[in-house]
């Protein structure tokens, strides 16, 4: 059986620069995609919150003045995370 000499690969500085450039481009594209998704999610969440707040305020407008004040106070407390006191 005949043996062939081993194939010698030669990697040049240009080859390395090309590889690094392709890799950097791919990483940059992935990062931009993640940022775009995060931005889209934040916008969707903000829109949902504003719609929920608008619906909440719709009920406040139709209520009596005392009920309006209570509803506004309750809404504000919910937004800032204050729990309602029980037994009051």
From TrEMBL:
GO terms for biological process: anaphase-promoting complex-dependent catabolic process. Residues 22-88 are annotated as: Disordered. The keyword NAD does not apply. GO terms for cellular component: anaphase-promoting complex. Residues 71-81 have a biased composition (Basic and acidic residues). Transmembrane segments: none annotated. Pfam families: ANAPC_CDC26 (PF10471). Keywords: Ubl conjugation pathway. Residues 28-56 have a biased composition (Low complexity). This is Anaphase-promoting complex, subunit CDC26. It comes from Moelleriella libera RCEF 2490.
